[in-house]
Specification:
The complex is a heterotrimer. Chain A contains three helices and no strands. By secondary structure, chain A is mainly alpha-helical. The longest helix of chain A has 31 residues. Among the domains of chain B are: 145 residues, no CATH class; 281 residues, no CATH class; 30 residues. In chain B, the strands form two sheets. In chain B, strands 1-2-3 form a three-stranded antiparallel β-sheet. Chain B has a two-stranded antiparallel ribbon with strand order 4-5. In chain B, strand 2 and strand 3 form a beta hairpin. The chains are: A mainly alpha, B mainly alpha, C mainly alpha. Chains in contact: A-B, A-C, B-C. Chains A and C meet through helix 1, helix 2 and helix 3 of A and helix 1, helix 2, helix 3, helix 4 and helix 5 of C.
Chain lengths: 101, 696, 167
């Protein structure tokens, strides 16, 4: 392993935090979904790194599943955004607050 | 016949019930008249029978049923009907009770015959006089008249002061009803007094007198332990002078009210508002004599109290003179006769006060005859004059209404005291007895007799003689009255002529004084003291004859001056009135006595009434209203409490929830990102807690 | 530093920078492109970590499928560039909270609880990475594999239903 696991973990943490800040900060729903993908990728990196360190292939298998689920989730998420766009004519999440109060 | 004593007051009462209930609608005018007159007529016949049986009391006593008590010595029959009030026993053990009982003795016999006899004649007269009235009024009149007769007979026949009092009040009530008979008419335009006001005045003035009667009655009851008249007079000697004086004065106050003496005479002239037969019956012949009757009835009590007797005599004499002066100047034919009645009642009281009870009763009887005749004659005149009562608008009627004219002359001579007419005998007797007590009393009486003759002559001349002072319209309607009115006039005229002969003075001639002998058992039994009043001067035939001549002279002078002033030199009274305008005005206005009473008695009383009404309205009602306002105030307070405090607390709970929920509501932005932020914040807190607890 | 380490750090920085640009860019399409770049660098890191299969899957699915999807949707819904520019209180607060969390975790590193050691060994036993993964996938994890396929089916159906035009 050329790089210590902690470095990889740090890297994945930073990527994760970038994704998290993007979720919390951006108004555009699509960007938020993209940020969520970033977060999921960061988790995947963690899995792969520790699969290598612990010499277990399960980590990789799990990553494969994660990617599959992420794909499904993105599909649904974007369908929702489309439906939202058709109803409210906007994709900005701070303009959709009928549940306010 | 004496066992039917109870029927005598009852028959007129039945007439009252019958006419009162059925008269207005069911019975015809004729039937009403027949019912009323026959009720009184039957009473008269029964009275005749009862009085006749007084002469043979022994046989009556033998066959008497249980309800009858016969006292042969006192010539009295008492019929007890039932026990009215049983009040247990007095402290001394005597039985306290009041019985409803009638008693017939010579005194009540005279009264009962006068009342029913003259009453019957007046009833017959009324059937003609009241012909023009509508049927309801006609029936109502006779119903009241019969009720009056029933009440008067109860008064006269009552054996107990309580029964007498029932009759006393009853005649007062009937007087009120009959004076105010024309209840929708005005009586006197100048004083704005309606006929109803006159009736009310009569009743109220009578009530003032009745206070005295009631107090006297109660005093006698507490002193003697019974209200039975014979029981009281039997104990007269033991009651003591103070009790007898007080009781005598109190009863006399009541008599002043009923018999219109000073100070309670003011109702009688205004009582002329009633129909003329009412004036004749009630205010001349019967009701006003009730006072005299009561005084004579309680003679033994009065004889124990010389002070009371003196008061009675003085009041009677002063009233006789006072009323005669007022009668001089009156211009209404009935008012002249009213004051004349007051004056003659004064004579009766004068007689009683001098201890001459027999003379008083004698004058009562003769006065009933000629005063009723005068009133009925005045009614006939008014009837002929189509309702005119002002004598200044009459004159020269002797040609047009001869019967009325003739009977009026008879009555006038009788009242003036010219022999052989009835008034002479009775009045002379009074003057003689007054002279025996005090020459001053005699002087007052003689002056009154002079004025009596004078004003009667004035009345006669102004009404019947001289020029006709009425208009064509009245002249056209002038007519003599119908037979139903003339016949009673004629009968009364005969009585006015011969009625005095039963009282022929013993000393003058061969005829016995039947009346004195008849009444002797009543007045001589208890009062040996009666003669003490008459003992001042010795009985001398010459003196008596001389006084008699003097009386005739006085009467003749009165008639003479009357002719001078009104027939031969009519300008004299006119100039006298002109010269002494103030005096004439004072006499014409009855010395302003009514106005005096109004200011001195009535005004403070009305002020008291207003004060009481004010008290009731503001203080009593104020307390009640204050309770209401208090309740209102406390309810406002509790409403305020409820609104602001109780509701405030409830609202406070709501506000608290709302306030606290506001905090949490702001978290629900509806924006998903903020929820995510909250989650991250939560993670941050958890991790930091974990981390810093780990690093410890 | 070995060459693989250098490559790793390079790829990592590219991934981080492109990740930053994803969330910073005003234009949605630019964000999508940057995301593609991030994915590709992450795929490279996978290769470095001897997970070739996952790297291939990453490129195929993520960069090839998902990003295309993203681009299509951006094309359908974007009206204008993000108006942005003004400072949003909300975003500032959220961003600082996020940074706080990161800071916290980095702080946790300094506490020395994390070991930074190199590892030896390889996960390549018999055959290549693909063989290993395939074997594990079809024997030990068959059920999740099948369930994942059903999940994808459901997702597909759901996406079709949700995005359907109301006609």
């Amino acid at each position: 392993m050329p790089v210590p696991a902690s470095h990889i973990m740090t890297f994945s943490l930073l990527l994760f935090s970038i994704g998290m800040i993007g979720v919390l900060t951006r108004r555009n729903a699509i960007i938020i979904l993209m940020s969520i993908e970033l977060m999921m990728n960061a988790a995947n990196i963690n899995f792969i790194a520790f699969s290598r360190q612990l010499n277990d292939v399960v980590g990789q298998v799990f990553s494969v599943f994660t990617i599959a689920v992420a794909a499904g989730e993105v599909a649904i998420g974007l369908a929702v955004v489309l439906a939202l766009f058709r109803n409210r004519d906007t994709v900005y999440v701070d303009e959709v607050h009928i549940m306010k109060g | 016949m004496t066992s039917l004593l109870w029927l005598i007051p009852l028959l007129p009462f039945l007439g009252f019930v019958l006419n009162g209930l059925l008269g207005a609608r069911v019975l015809s005018r004729r039937a009403v008249g027949i019912v009323a007159c026959s009720a009184v007529g039957l009473s008269f016949l029964l009275s005749l029978g009862a009085v006749a049986s007084l002469a043979r009391l022994e046989s009556v006593a033998a066959a008497a049923p249980g309800s009858l008590a016969v006292d042969v010595e006192a010539h009295r029959v008492t019929q007890t009907l039932y026990t009215w009030m049983a009040m247990g026993k007095s402290p001394s053990g005597a039985d306290l009770r009041v019985n409803w009982a009638y008693a017939l003795d010579p005194l009540s016999a005279v009264m009962v015959l006068v009342v029913t006899g003259v009453g019957f004649l007046i009833h017959v007269y009324s059937t003609g006089y009241m012909e023009q009235e509508p049927r309801e009024a006609y029936a109502r009149f006779f119903a009241y008249l019969n009720l009056f007769m029933a009440m008067m007979l109860t008064l006269v026949l009552g054996a107990s002061l309580a029964v007498v009092f029932v009759g006393w009040e009853g005649v007062g009530l009937c007087s009120y009803l009959l004076i105010g008979f024309y209840h929708d008419r005005m009586f006197d335009e100048t004083t704005k007094m309606s006929c109803a006001d006159a009736g009310r005045k009569a009743f109220i003035v009578n009530r003032v007198g009745d206070i005295g009667f009631m107090l006297g009655m109660l005093l006698l009851f507490s002193a003697a332990g019974t209200l039975d008249i014979q029981g009281i007079v039997g104990q007269a000697g033991r009651l003591g002078v103070e009790v007898c004086t007080a009781a005598g004065l109190l009863l006399f106050l009541g008599a002043c009210g009923k018999s219109a003496q000073i100070p309670l005479y003011v109702w009688l002239p205004d009582a002329m508002a009633g129909p003329t037969p009412v004036s004749a019956l009630i205010h001349a012949a019967t009701m006003v004599t009730a006072g005299v009757y009561v005084v004579c009835r309680m003679a033994p009590v009065y004889l124990q109290a010389p002070a009371a007797l003196t008061t009675v005599a003085v009041v009677g004499g002063v009233t006789a003179l006072f009323a005669a002066t007022i009668g001089l100047c009156q211009n209404d034919i009935k008012k002249v006769l009213a004051y004349s009645t007051v004056s003659q009642l004064g004579y009766m009281m004068l007689a009683a006060g001098c201890g001459a009870f027999t003379a008083g009763v004698f004058h009562l009887m003769t006065h009933a005859f000629f005063k009723a005749l005068l009133f009925l004659g005045a009614g006939s005149v008014i009837h002929a004059m189509s309702g005119e009562q002002d004598i200044r608008k009459m004159g020269g009627l002797d040609r047009h209404i001869p019967w009325t004219h003739g009977t009026f002359v008879v009555a006038g001579l009788a009242i003036a005291g010219i022999p052989p007419f009835a008034g002479f005998f009775s009045k002379d007797e009074i003057l003689w007895r007054a002279f025996q007590v005090s020459p001053i009393l005699w002087l007052i009486g003689a002056a009154g007799a002079f004025l009596t003759a004078f004003y009667m002559t004035r009345l006669y001349i102004l009404v019947f003689r001289g020029k006709e002072r009425f208009g064509q319209e009245t002249r056209h309607h002038l007519h003599e009255s119908p037979r139903s009115m003339i016949v009673p006039l004629a009968i009364l005229a005969v009585l006015s002529l011969v009625g005095g002969w039963i009282g022929w003075p013993e000393s003058m001639g061969p005829f016995p004084n039947l009346l004195e002998r008849f009444l002797a058992p009543v007045f001589e039994a208890h009062g040996a003291a009666a003669s003490s009043m008459a003992a001042t001067l010795p009985r001398s035939w010459l003196l008596e004859f001389g006084m008699m001549m003097l009386s005739i002279l006085v009467a003749g002078l009165g008639i003479f001056f009357g002719c001078v002033f009104y027939e031969w030199r009519p300008e004299i009274p006119v100039s006298m009135a002109e010269n002494s305008r103030r005096l004439y005005g004072a006499i014409l206005n009855k010395y302003y006595v009514d106005e005096f009473y109004g200011r001195v008695v009535l005004a403070p009383y009305y002020a008291l009434c207003r004060a009481a009404a004010w008290f009731d309205q503001w203080i009593v009602d104020g307390v009640v209203n204050a309770a209401g306002y208090l309740t209102l105030g406390t309810s406002y307070t509790s409403v305020g409490f409820d609104t602001y405090i109780v509701d405030g607390l409830v609202n406070l709970a709501g506000y608290t929830v709302r306030g606290t929920s506001w905090v949490f509501r702001t978290l629900q932005t509806g924006i998903v990102q903020s929820y995510a932020t909250a989650m991250v914040l939560g993670i941050f807190i958890l991790v930091s807690v974990y981390l810093f607890s780990m690093s410890r | 530093m070995t060459p693989s380490a250098a490559v790793f750090y390079a790829l990592a920085s590219i991934a981080l920078v492109s990740g930053l640009m994803v969330i910073w860019s005003r234009n949605a399409v630019h964000s999508a492109i940057y995301l593609v770049l991030a994915f590709l660098s992450v795929a490279g890191i996978y290769v470095l970590l001897e997970a070739e299969f996952v790297a291939a899957i990453q490129v195929l699915v993520y960069a090839g499928g998902i990003m295309v999807l993203f681009l299509f949707v951006i094309m359908l819904v974007t009206l204008s560039d993000d108006a942005g520019g003004r400072v949003r209180v909300h975003a500032t607060v959220s961003g600082s909270i996020g940074l706080a969390v990161v800071g916290l975790i980095l702080y946790a590193y300094t506490l020395g609880k994390v070991r930074a050691e190199e590892t030896t060994g390889s996960i390549l036993r018999q055959g290549g990475n693909l063989q290993n993964v395939g074997q594990s996938l079809y024997t030990d994890h068959l059920l999740p594999f099948e369930v994942a396929s059903i999940l994808l089916l459901v997702a597909m159906i759901g996406a079709i239903v949700l995005a359907r035009q109301k006609s």
